[in-house]
Amino acid sequence: MSDAVIEEEVKTNPQGDVITSAPVLETKSKKGAEAQHVVDPETLFFHAPREKTFITGSEAAKEAIRRSNVDIAISYPITPQSETMQQVGYLYAEGYVKDYYRGEEEYGVMSAIAGASRSGVRCLTATAGPGLMRGLEVIASWPGGRLPCVLLVMCRVVNAPLAIQPDNVELSYLLNTGCIVLHAENQQDFFDFPMVAFMVGEKPEVTLPVAVAVDGFFVTHARGWVHLPSADIKLPPRNCYHEAVPMMDNENPPIRIARDAPIQKSNFISYQMHASWQQEIWAAVERSRKWLIRWLGGLIEVVNPGAKIMLVASGAAVSQSREAVRQAQEQGLDVGLIKVKSLRPFPGRELVAALDHAEHIIVPEFNYVGWLAKEVKSVISRTERVMDGPRVFGGMSMPTELIMEKIMSSNGRLPNTHSA
Amino acid sequence: MKAESSYCVLPGPEGLLPPAAATQGILPPEDGEALLEGRIVSEDEAMDAAARALLTRKNPTLFPGPLMLWGWTEHTREKSVPFFEIAAEVPGVRIIPMPDYRPIYPKIDPEAVINPCHPNLTIWHNKIEACILIGVHCHFANITLKMIRAGTNCYTIALCAEAGHEDAMMSVPNCNAEKIAKFAEALRRVKRQGVRPLYAGQGIIPSGWSQIAALKGHGNGVRPEEVRAGAGHTASFSHDLEQGLDENEE
């Protein structure tokens, strides 16, 4: 497919809205990845000049993949992920992704990604809500297989009755798989985080899959300002001979090395080996901290440190919380915010330090179960400081008034309001 | 990042299921540093301590893994020379390979191989109290090191080509041929400082079928070049090890 055809094609979403593609960025030639040159991660992340663009979250992810030297992208369409992988399809047509196809469904997709990762190439997939749940059995096997890849998760409702709207309860299932899990707040994060994810997951001492989650629609389908480096540069390729396990190389003699030993004997030694293996997965998650801190600028971001009332949020709830903090400060209230960028590894020590002084802790979330509040309570002392909610789910948006009510009630101005 | 944990990585047996050191706050050192019992120290300090352990504890053993046994890269080949330099500096040392990561159960020959699925069998059988893991992929080195710490009193040394291993008593990251040679020099240095090797006067102890076959007629104290000539053949591992192995047998 030529570039010209891509630009003339009018795409629509299921609602019939026209989907526009990201701005076409000038490259030195039309040969896609061949026109790019490899730079070290620090250069791409921090030093390369950036240009400000106004694009959707899906387009931001596309631009990240364009610069990530991806070998293969496999997925199965599901709202709200479909548009992003459609964008990645354009990259395949343009020569930025070497292989790209639609799997039969998510179980097959995640299995195919496992095979691709074992072969030593850089892999991308993406899913959403029920698709994540369907693929979860395989996804939970990735860390034990030490399979670096990037999984984009565009969160949506998973519960019956069927709905395709925003809700991130699915992340509570993903947190205990052994995958590294990042949660992007906005379009800029959805550009930056996937590139960091590739580099961290492929570090030899880590060698793990990384999920980059984002709240569907709020970020994927909405436009925001994104600072993009030149499309002429890209990340180094995956170095599969420097990882925690041998890749499957049929051209080299020791192909008989089995990297995923079947541990099926009913004896203590087998149990012990499996236990040690599981410990190693979570140890590898811990080793990712150093790189995430370096390349994400910390596992958390703190706004107005020292405030007596602190909001703690991840994903799109951070943006709503930023606005609530602004409104609260206009009213003379001392309110701060902690943005949690990384859910696994969880920034326990950072939260303990940043919340030590706080008298009230409010955790706004886009799900019923309040998984982030539980995570926060699991690491801090005096957990009675954590207020319940506000939480919205099933596709609801989160008006800042909900957060303000919590702030006001915690400040003694209103009785504590009821929410889920 | 400096280690901030109070957890110490010491010879065991530590118990049923020791924690992974990384989850106790011990993380890999930067290049030029090393981990010694969970503390980040200079390479020289760590190497000297490990050299003393290797020379003075019972049945010192080198465990070369697939990255040392096969010529995956030129880098791998380069490292085999200082590897045998280390062997030559440790009287009474054994060389027991870890050629494969598949579980070899129940008929492992603990004199011939060590396996990451049950490394303690080889340690126990040979009463090994100090060892070096080298050329083992990091994932398998880590699970092995934890199991050794759980059930044995073996002092573990990991000379790692990547980031290093928190679960070893001593680990040096980014171990290229130069750093491996530096460890051989540490062995010479501590001997000059007065450390008397436990097995002074002995050479390399033959161990395992392939090595024993290679050493026929040479006796003890064989030169490293001769060991390499016999043990470096891929088929010697792949065929010998499968004899007597029934993976379906309980």
Any overview of this molecule?
The complex is a heterodimer of chains A (420) and B (250). With 420 residues, chain A is an alpha/beta fold. Chain A has two domains: 28-234, 3-Layer(aba) Sandwich (Rossmann fold); 300-410, 3-Layer(aba) Sandwich (Rossmann fold). Chain A has helices at residues 3-8, 41-47, 57-66, 82-94, 106-118, 129-139, 142-145, 170-174, 187-201, 268-296, 316-330, 348-355, 371-379, 400-410; strands at residues 11-12, 18-19, 37-38, 50-56, 72-75, 99-102, 123-127, 150-155, 180-184, 210-215, 223-229, 233-234, 300-303, 309-313, 335-340, 342-344, 360-362, 386-387. A seven-stranded mixed beta sheet of chain A has the order 6-5-7-8-10-9-16, with helices on both faces. The radius of gyration of chain A is 22 Å and the shape is globular. Chain B is of the alpha/beta class and 250 residues long. Chain B has a single domain, classed as 3-Layer(aba) Sandwich (Rossmann fold). Helices cover 38% and strands 11% of the residues of chain B. Chain B has nine helices and seven strands. Chain B has a seven-stranded mixed beta sheet with strand order 2-1-7-6-5-3-4, sandwiched between helices. In chain B, α5 links the parallel β5 and β6 (155-159). The longest helix of chain B has 16 residues, at 74-89. The model of chain B is unreliable at 218-250 (pLDDT under 50). Classes of the chains: A alpha/beta (420), B alpha/beta (250). Chain A binds chain B through residues 146, 203-205, 207, 241-246, 252-254, 256-259, 261-263, 265-266, 269-270, 272-273, 275-277, 279-280, 282-284, 286-287, 289-290, and chain B through 1, 17, 19-23, 27-28, 66, 69-70, 72-73, 100-103, 105, 116-118, 120-121, 137-140, 142-143, 146-147, 150, 161-164, 166-167, 234, 238, 250.
